[in-house]
Amino acid sequence: MSGVYFINTVYSKHSLDSVTPSKPEMGAYNSGDNHLSQRSNVSIQRGATVLEDRSEGCSKCRSENGERKEEEIEAKEMLKSYVESATIHGVSQTNGPEHYPYRRRIWLVLVLLMAIILGYILYKQIALRYEYPIKTTTKVSLHSELPFPAITICNINQFMRDKVPDIPIVKHVLFYFSEYAKMAFGDYKHNMPDLDNLTDVSGEELKRILLDATPRLSDFFHQCRWETKIYNCEDLFRPINTTYGSCFVFNGPEVKPENMAKAVGSVSSLRVLIHLSNNKSYYSRLIHAGAKVIVHEPYQMPYPETDGFSLRPGLSATIAISRSESKSLPRPYKAYSNGYCEDTQAEGYANKLSEYQTYTTIHCLAECQLNRTREICGCQYYFSPGDFPVCSAKLTLTCLLPLFWSVRTDDFMTCDCPRECETVAYSADVSYADFASQFIEEQAARDSVTLFQEKLRENIVDVLVSFKTLNVFHVIQEPELTRTTIIGTLGGQMGLFLGASILSLTELLEILILLMLRAFKTCAAWIAGRCCVRA
To answer: InterPro entries from the xrefs (predicted)?
Structure first.
C-alpha cells in the first residue's frame, strides 16, 4: 500500500463567512507524491469558494426578505393614511372608532354599495348612449336678407279647348284621366269605346299634342311686378314641365345662384295678374277653376295636384310666407321613429335618383311610382320626366289608366324613400279680397281699360307674394347623450352617492397605482428569494 496516504483535514470554523483548513495531523510526503498534494489543495480551495458563495447568497436572501417585510409595512401604512384622509365620503369611517359593534364593517358595506350603484348608473348611461337617443330644440334666427323662394303658378285648367285637336282617341285620353270622369261615373270602364275601331297615336305625338294644348306664358300672365318695377313676364317666369303639365316658375332651377332674387324687406314682393281663360276650359286632372300657387325651393319639383294654394277667379290674394328649416341627425341616429334620414349634405353623397337632379322624398316617391309604371306597362305617362318611351294613346287607356285609378298609399310603402336630413319648408298666411270694387269696374269701362273689359270675376286672379317676416324658424335634432353629458351626469351621481369629485378619483387612482407598484416590487423580491433558497 506504499504511495497511498490519507489526509485528514480539520476545518477551523471561525464564522460563516470564512472557512480555513488546518494543517494535517499526520502523513508523510515524498517527492513522488507532490501531484496528489497539489490536487488536494485545489479541491480545498474550490470547496471554500462554494461555501463563501452560498454564505453570501443566504445573507442576500435574508436582506431581501427584510426589505420585503418593510415594504409590506409601508404599503399598509400608505393604505391606512389614504383611508384616514380620503375625500370620498364614508371611506374614513371604515377605519374610524368603533362606537358600536361592527361599525367599520357597516360603513365598508355602505361605501361598497354606493360604489356599485354608481357603477350601475354609469353602465346604464353608456348603454343608453349607444341607443342614440335624440332631443329636439327650436330656435328663431333673425336675418336682414333671405333668398326668395321659387314660385310656381299653374292654370288649374290644363288644356285650352280650342287647341285640342279633333282626334277621338286623344279626347278619350283627356276625358278618362280627368277628375270629372272619376267623380261622375266612378268607374274608368264606363262607356269605354272599342279601341280597335280608333286610330292610335304614338307616345311622342301624344305628348307633343298635349303640350301644345297647354296655356302659353304670354296668354296666362297679364302683368308681372317684382318689388316696385313692372317687368315683361317672360323675363321673370320660365315654363316648367310638371306631372300636371306646363306651369310657370319664378326664381326656378334654371336661374343661376348669383341671379336668384332675394328679399330684403316688405318691398321685396312678387305681384302678378293672371288671365285664366275659363271660357276655353276643357277636361283636366282637376275640375276646379282658378290658379294653383306653389311656394318651394328652386331645386324642388312642384306637384300641383297635391301642393300649393288654390285661388279662384275674381280674387286678389295676398300670400305672406314664412321660412322654416329642419336639421335631423344622420345615421346611426334614427331621425324619425320609423327609420333613418337621407344625409344629402354628407361629403361625397351620391344622388340615387336617375330622373331628378336632387334627392327629396317627393322626388324619390315620384320616381318609385314612375319605375313601377315603366315595369308594368313598358312605357310612361306623357308628362313624366326622363327619356323613357311615352305610352301610345291606346296603351295609355289600357295600361296607364287602370294604374292611375288604383293608386293607393300602400303602393308607396315598398319605396325606399327616407326623408332628407335637412329640409326647407314654407308656410303661408293667405288673405283674399275681391279684385276690384264696383266703382273701379265702372270707371275702367268708361276709360276703356282693356284688362277690365274682361269678365273679371271669371278670369282674373291677382296674386301678391312676400315674406311675412325675415325670421327663420329652426327645428334642430341633437344627441341627447354625449361624452360631456355623461361626464356631467357621472359627476352629479358621484357627489350624490359618494360625495366624490374628479380629484377624489385622482386620489383613488394614485393610491391604486402606488399599491400596484409596491405589489409588483414585492412579488419580484419574493421570486428572487425563492431562487436563492433553491440555489
So the answer is: ENaC (IPR001873)
